[in-house]
Write a structure and sequence with these properties.
The complex is a heterotrimer of chains A (309), B (326) and C (324).
Chain A: H1 23-31, H2 35-52, H3 54-57, E1 79-80, E2 86-87, H4 98-134, H5 136-150, H6 154-165, H7 169-196, H8 199-206, H9 211-247, H10 259-270, H11 276-303
Antiparallel strand pairs in A: 1-2
Helix pairs in contact in A: 2-4, 2-11, 4-5, 4-7, 4-9, 4-11, 5-7, 6-7, 7-9, 9-10, 9-11, 10-11
Chain B: E1 3-16, E2 19-32, E3 36-40, H1 47-55, E4 62-71, E5 74-75, H2 81-87, E6 92-95, H3 99-102, H4 109-118, H5 125-138, H6 144-147, H7 157-169, E7 175-179, H8 187-204, E8 207-212, H9 215-219, E9 224-229, E10 232-238, H10 239-244, H11 249-256, E11 305-307, E12 310-312
Parallel strand pairs in B: 3-8, 3-9, 6-7, 7-8
Antiparallel strand pairs in B: 1-2, 1-4, 4-5, 9-10, 10-12, 11-12
Helix pairs in contact in B: 4-5, 5-7
Chain C: H1 2-29, H2 34-37, H3 44-54, H4 60-72, H5 86-121, H6 126-140, H7 143-157, E1 170-172, E2 175-177, H8 182-215, H9 218-225, H10 230-267, H11 273-283, H12 286-314, H13 316-323
Classes of the chains: A mainly alpha (309), B alpha/beta (326), C mainly alpha (324).
Chain lengths: 309, 326, 324
């Protein structure tokens, strides 16, 4: 099977000489080919902006208890409340405007997702590259622990840690990091060992370059593509995991309701037909997670050399 | 001698997003019973696609767009899947380069040979196993009935390729397409298998198309050569004649780059440049950019013309006047 | 083969020992269990008595030693809340969880592998694209949300199926099962679908990726060149080659589904181990938490061990390497 089809995008397509394009520009022009991915990206950006500017655009500050009225509690979408404006998505059991609550909830969820994903990325990737770079017994030890943890479901780990550490943002992020860093470690380790075996790293290590330089200049950049893919997926996972924990009543304190908690608050009212209290925050959550995953899927396909056309 | 295969004007094109890749672009040849035809060319010259076209196994987006393949007098181009499948394995079969990849690691040799026999009619296990054992011993695998219960990983690379050959021979097909079957093997084992193939072909009357990029291997085996370049046949003729007096500059380059034709100590000759992308072929002779004989005439694509026993597609055929530069 | 089994077994023992230390230190060293077993207004004497009774005045390693020796004899202590032996408590809840998990994973695997092979075999067909789009959804949408929607649709709006509980059970081999009665089946339907959906997405992706890869190999080309029909190629070659990753994942998924059942059981008030652990966490019933975690760890170790063995049994290459 040496010569089935000559690579269509053969680099030897010499004339006309290709203009120098930055890797990012090339990546973007490839990314743009998938309409689904572009739409998903737009959705992610819009949701992030909504969350970021929630205090400016939300009809109501859902944390300001003095503004809430029980008269407005559990009203269906379209209800004009005591505040004098229409509750487009209805109100929750405390009389909060659901649309505002969702924007603030998005804020919390995205914050947690980014923080947990970021810390897990830094810690996990660092650990993985360290293991690959140092080798020997430390490598074995680190990777044994990582593999052991990977065989254990993340949700259970997060559940137990949250139960032990107590409620709070920092604790929750800590639990999510502990539950997810192993994926980054595995990925970084895989990419780094594959890279380390290549001759040029051996050559770089043989020169008087410092070890740190080798890691920073050679190992790390080559681990980036798979790490970016894992990071997108894990941010989505963090958000989903946080929502699940909050739904189970083990996530954030009630003072800062994330999307998961909004859904959980509405759950008891579902049976009596007041679906909107759970459903709208849920829709926001799903749209966010699915959109992030779709973007991640596209990036993965682009980085996968085997699917490259 | 009876003709078993006649290929005329075969064109297999791949319709990709980047454009039409003319992997095989007008290939013609014929094959007689018990004959070995050597199909030579660099990677990307279309020789493997030619092989797959003969079996009707070109993967999409590839498609035979033109031409005719007559196997034992019957047309294969345009035949439906059922007909093609019924002929594969029975009238024409194929062996591949990497024997490790071709056999299913999860099935015993016996099971795999049984499947191939069951594909063309009902047969009892006992009869199938007897036939399998017979063919294994024919390709030089002794105590073969015991070996039927073995898994592929229990064989060495050379043995695995023998098993693959035995499978290809199960229905005594008229033609076997062998796609670089010895490239992945050690040189000593390669020589053994080459010798055995010669005997097998002589004994069974099966004709063979031996695809290779290695002119040395092919010329020790084939009675006739077919040299392909960029999807087209550039030279065709009896092995001895082509080797002694190559008419096409590309063939000449291939022969000159053989280690055996170099004088000791002298640097090996090589053909300058690389195979052109089939998406962006020059309008004239595709070899012109790499050819020392190229001139204005080469802006027009040369047709095949006969010179003695050979056929060549070149405006300046014959023994070269200017040596191919090293 | 025996050497391989022994080596794997020893590895499993070491992992279990390490897990038990981590869980014990994690759960017991944080917080003070005394506060839960005695009333807040208890005198200092009662308090100290309780501390002695629980062995909390001893050094940590000694506490662990006592705990470990007891645990090895099957004694994980008594639940603070139910005041019955923890093992008995978990044992009474286990069948419900097992039943739910097995039904979910088996149906997800059978359906997922079928759909996945189809999607991998005809990657460009419209049906395949639909299957894959749905699997992205199944992957991304949090399981608790799917549960909510299932309840909203089938229990609240349509009123076809019950929203929670186990329904009528029948005793078989001394254990009560739901799936043997019509009412029980109605009760298990929604939670089982909920739990299966996520696994289904996973199995589809796995089977599709495997199929795509295998269909491009020379093994399949060679089989085609020998004239095998596509049906035979799929049945005899593909299914056999794809079985290795499927079996591995099936085993691992069995474990992770047991853990994931936590969410499903809570939503559908399914009285299994998952609901028990959530309830125990919220009231800090430590013996139950410790026992659950250690048993779950043991389960995972056992599953990994079994998967390795099955793996060795179905893959002739590994079988050969181990015996050699």
């Amino acid at each position: 099977m040496t010569d089935i089809v000559p690579e269509p995008a053969a680099p030897e397509k010499s004339t006309p000489a290709p203009r120098a394009v930055s890797p990012f520009a090339r990546f973007w022009s490839e990314f743009r080919e998938s309409t689904v991915a572009v739409v998903a990206l737009v959705v992610v950006v819009v949701l992030c902006l909504l969350a970021l500017f929630a205090p400016l655009i939300a009809p109501q500050d859902p944390y300001d208890l003095s503004r809430l009225s029980l008269m407005d509690a559990r009203r269906p979408p379209g209800f004009v409340g005591t505040g004098g404006y229409t509750h487009l998505l209805g109100t929750d059991p405390q009389g909060r405007d659901l649309l505002s609550a969702i924007m603030y909830g998005l804020r919390v969820s995205i914050q947690i997702g980014l923080a947990a994903g970021g810390v897990a990325l830094a810690f996990g990737a660092g650990l993985g590259i360290l293991a690959a770079y140092l080798g020997g017994r430390i490598e074995t030890l680190i990777m044994r622990i990582v593999d052991l943890q990977l065989s254990f479901p993340a949700i259970l780990l997060a559940l137990v840690l949250v139960a032990l550490l107590g409620q709070g943002k920092a604790q929750l992020i800590g639990a999510l990091v502990a539950a997810q860093y192993a994926y980054f470690a595995r990925t970084a380790y895989g990419a780094a060992t594959a890279e380390r075996r290549k001759d040029y790293i051996e050559a770089a290590l043989a020169t008087p370059l410092s070890g740190r330089r080798v890691v920073l200049r050679h190992l790390l950049p080559n681990c980036m593509p798979p790490l970016i893919v894992v990071a997108t997926v894990q941010i989505a996972n963090s958000i989903s995991l946080e929502a699940t924990l909050s739904f189970l009543g083990l996530g954030l304190p009630v003072t800062e309701p994330s999307l998961g908690m909004l859904i959980s608050n509405g759950f008891p009212y579902m049976m009596s037909g007041r679906y909107w209290i759970s459903v709208y925050p849920g829709v926001a959550l799903i749209v966010l997670i699915v959109a992030i995953n779709l973007v991640g899927d596209r990036i993965r396909d682009q980085f996968n050399p085997r699917l490259r056309r | 001698m009876t003709e078993v295969l006649r290929v005329e004007g075969l064109k297999t094109h791949f319709h990709t997003r980047a454009g039409v890749v003319k992997a095989v672009d007008g290939v013609s040849f014929s094959l007689e019973e018990g004959e070995i035809l050597g199909l030579v060319g660099e990677s990307g010259s279309g020789k493997t696609v030619t092989g797959f076209s003969l079996l009707g196994l070109v993967d999409p987006p590839g498609r035979i767009v033109e031409g005719s393949i007559r196997l034992k007098g019957q047309e294969l181009v345009g035949a439906d899947d059922r007909t093609l499948r019924a002929r594969r394995g029975r009238d024409i079969s194929m062996i591949f380069q990497d024997p490790i990849a071709t056999l299913n690691p999860m099935l015993t040799i016996g099971q795999q040979m049984r499947l191939v026999q069951e594909a063309h009619g009902r047969i009892t296990h006992r009869a199938a196993d007897a036939r399998s054992a017979e063919l294994l011993s024919r390709v030089g695998i002794s105590s073969s009935s015991a070996r039927l219960r073995a898994y592929p990983h229990e064989f060495s690379g050379g043995m695995r390729q023998r098993v693959a050959i035995a499978i290809a021979l199960l229905h005594s097909p008229a033609v076997i397409v062998a796609d670089e079957p010895t490239t992945a093997l050690d040189v000593s084992i390669q020589a053994q298998i080459l010798a055995e193939m010669k005997t097998l072909v002589a004994e069974t009357g099966t004709a063979m198309i031996w695809i290779s990029h290695d002119l040395a291997v092919v010329s020790s085996l084939a009675s006739r050569l077919l040299v392909m370049y960029a999807g087209r046949v550039v030279e065709r003729g009896p092995t001895a004649a082509v080797l002694r007096q190559p008419k096409h500059p590309y063939t000449e380059g291939l022969i000159a780059s053989l280690p055996s034709s170099a004088s000791p100590g002298a640097p090996l000759r090589q053909i300058p440049g690389t195979t052109p992308s089939l998406l962006a072929l020059p309008p004239g002779c595709p070899f012109a950019p790499r050819c020392a004989r190229a001139d204005a005439a080469c802006a027009i694509r040369p047709d095949l013309s006969e010179i003695g026993t050979q056929t060549v597609a070149c405006h300046h055929p014959g023994p070269s006047h200017t040596r191919v530069p090293a | 083969m025996l050497g391989f089994v022994i080596q794997r077994f020893l590895q499993a023992v070491v992992v279990m020992a390490a897990m038990s230390v981590i869980v014990f230190v994690g759960v017991y060293a944080i917080g003070n269990p005394v506060d839960i077993v005695i009333p807040p207004d208890a005198t200092q004497d009662i308090r100290e008595d309780a501390i002695r009774r629980l062995g909390l005045d001893r050094p940590l390693w000694e506490q662990y030693w006592i705990f470990a020796t007891n645990a090895l004899q099957g004694d994980f202590g008594r639940s603070f809340v139910y005041n019955i032996p923890v093992l008995e408590l978990i044992g009474s809840r286990l069948p419900a969880t097992l039943e739910l998990v097995l039904i979910s994973v088996v149906s997800a695997t059978v359906l997922g592998v079928t759909l996945g092979i189809y999607a991998g075999y005809r990657p460009d067909s419209r049906i395949s694209k639909t299957i894959m789009a749905l699997s992205v959804l199944g992957f991304s949408v949090p399981s608790f949300w799917v549960g909510l929607i299932l309840i909203l649709t089938f229990a609240v709006s349509l009123g076809w199926l019950p929203a929670g509980g186990r329904g009528e059970t029948v005793e078989l081999l001394g254990i009560r099962w739901s799936f043997l009665t019509l009412d029980g089946l109605a009760h298990i339907a929604l939670p089982a679908v909920n739990l299966a959906l996520f696994k289904l997405a996973m199995m589809i992706r796995l089977a599709r990726a495997g199929t795509r890869e295998i269909m491009l190999t020379d093994t399949i080309k060679f089989a085609r060149a020998a004239g095998l029909s596509e049906a035979t190629i799929l049945r005899r070659h593909l299914l056999k080659m794809i079985s290795i990753p499927i079996v591995t994942v099936f085993g691992l998924e069995l474990g992770s589904t047991l853990a994931f059942a936590v969410v499903t059981e809570t939503i559908f008030s399914w009285p299994g181990v998952g609901k028990l652990i959530i309830d125990s966490i919220s009231v800090l019933d430590r013996p139950v938490m410790v026992a659950y975690l250690i048993l779950t760890a043991a389960l995972f170790v056992t599953i990994n061990f079994t998967v390795d063995l099955v793996f060795a049994l179905i893959d002739p290459r590994i079988r050969a390497r181990r015996t050699a």
